[in-house]
Amino acid sequence: MEVIVGTAGHIDHGKTALVKALTGVDADRLPEEKRRGITIELGFAELDLGELRIGFIDVPGHERFVKNVLAGAHGIDLVALVIAADEGVMPQTREHFDICRLLAVKTGLIILTKIDLVDEEMLELAKLDARGLVKNSFLENAPIVCVSAKTGEGLPELNKALRDAASKVPARNNNYVARLPIDRVFSVKGFGAVVTGTLVSGEIKTGDELELLPAGKKVRVRNLQVHGKDVENSIAGNRVAVNLGGINTSDIERGMTLAPPGALSPTRSIDVQMEVLPGSARPLKTRQRVRVHLGASEVLGRLQIIGEANGGETGEISAGQSGFAQIRLESEIVAIAGERFVIRSYSPQITIAGGTVLNNSAVRHRRKDFAEVKKWLEEMTAAKDTGDKQTQLKLFLAAAGEHGLTATALQSRTGWRDRVLGETIQTATGAVIDAGGIFLDRENFETLAAKTVAEIESFHQREPLARGMLKETLREKLFSHLPVEVFHKTLHTLEDQKKILAEKDTVRASSYHLDLTSPDQAIRQKLLDIYCGAGLEVPVLDSALAEAAGESSVSKDHARRIAQLLLDSGELVRVSPELLFHRDEIHKLVQNIRAFAGRSSDRLIDISIFKELAGVSRKYAIPLLEYLDREKITRRAGDKRLVL
């Protein structure tokens, strides 16, 4: 078993000395740290207790370096809250403890150091002070271990307490993609760029291709080390050093994240649930500029408060209260739903709040939508708290509306690995619509389908003589901003439900029936009479329409729509844009041509023979032959046609 223990506590309370007494490793590695005698950067050490291996993250105690504390605190399994017995609880003790609470650390222990400097009475006072600090918190019942790094007193008891605390650490969740927030970057001669961090989820193997975010650069894992030893793979919870190929050290910064290519996306806007520390001097307010510490990153952002816990909309969250907000960030970060973060004030830099990311792809909310947004955030909070993945999935799809989300977009929001995402989609089949890889919430899809039927029915009212609405017109009107897969899925679903009838290029409502008025019936019959009586020497379309419309005092456009009905029914055949023929005349022509070809040795005809067979001039012969070619009744063979 392996756990990550983070030290926490005020400056000069003996955190680094304690780690050295336990492991033999001086976590202060920088020359400046040696010279000044204080911890500035994160330090790392390992304690091997046989079946238990502990990775220590030693953090600075000085208030100026709290941002370095936060860069390492995100990955710890349990906290060792260090309090010097000769000083008791101090300001950074409180701030470090607040940070652990805000990051939802679940377990830990309290260590009273420097007991060689105090008597029993002073030690008891220090214990009372510590108990007062952790009252009503996750450390309320944690053991207090008294040690001296100088004399070694209490170290065996501390080892036992660490074992006991480690046994209470829950197993890392295996539902998420590999994610390594980078808290240290350096170069090794002959190897190149090396990054370190706590692998918070997933697994990384030697040879893997990963993506460095938010830069979006592809890198390759050359080598892995866990506690200074080469390994082939690293699992969630490991402190890992990764030798990267394909990138220079200068292109990597603390706060970046390694993840599988395409699995996660950077963001500048997150919707969150927030809690303000009881000791905060001021409430959090809309437009307030804050420092956001998430993973190993620190970015600036501005708040938009979305109501208060009591349902009000005063634009603030008071000390000791919780509520919802949107944080608009000044630079990109990588976050997933459910990830914890800490808020510090812009100036002075003091820890004031923290919370949970609920939506890492948030859009800017209008005040009038706050009630609806708040309801969504409340439902997402409940789903995250209970681990209800189906509800989380449906909420993300509901927020996406008619656009839906691809599996890749869903993964970037949830951080779920492929298997977990696939299983969740499958089990939510009744509530999720798969439109060719675009997933939609059923309610949104049904609303879109209803709008589609309504639009087609409205078209029928506007154009009662039209055979149906052109599919392309429908797509441009309702689906131009949506993926084409959603358009096709909507039509297919409505066809299956027998609500519409789709033809080659048109679509009509199943309830639509064409009922011509008596005047329209007369025009229809007049057109049939014109084309039937003309044989193959038909008038051009405009002339036929003028003749048919003239007797009924309607416009040529109205007559044209009735002619289109005859074309749709197949009673008339369009040979060229201005030449229509009665189907019976075309049928007789085809029979005559095939009969002639049957008597011919080579089945060939030329224009002169065709004109004679059809009884038409060249004006009609050329368009008719081209039509027969298109219909695959004839085929050009030089200056002749082969009858097929």
What does this entry look like structurally?
- It contains 19 helices and 35 strands.
- It starts with a strand and ends with a strand.
- The chain is α+β, with helices and mostly antiparallel strands and 644 residues long.
- The strands form nine sheets. Strands 7, 8, 9, 11, 12, 13, 15 and 16 form an eight-stranded antiparallel β-sheet that branches. A six-stranded mixed β-sheet has the order 2-3-1-4-5-6, with helices on both faces.
- Helix 15 (541-550) packs across helix 16 and helix 18 crosses helix 19.
Spans with pLDDT under 50 lasting ≥5 residues? Answer: 308-312
Tally of helical runs: 19
Query: How much helix is in the residues?
Result: 25-40%
Distance between the termini: 80 Å
Calculate the mean pLDDT score and round it: 89
* Class derived from helix and strand content: alpha+beta
Q: What is the overall shape?
A: elongated
Beta-strand percentage range: 25-35%
Radius of gyration, whole Å: 38 Å
Q: Number of DSSP strands?
A: 35
Largest sheet: 8 strands, antiparallel
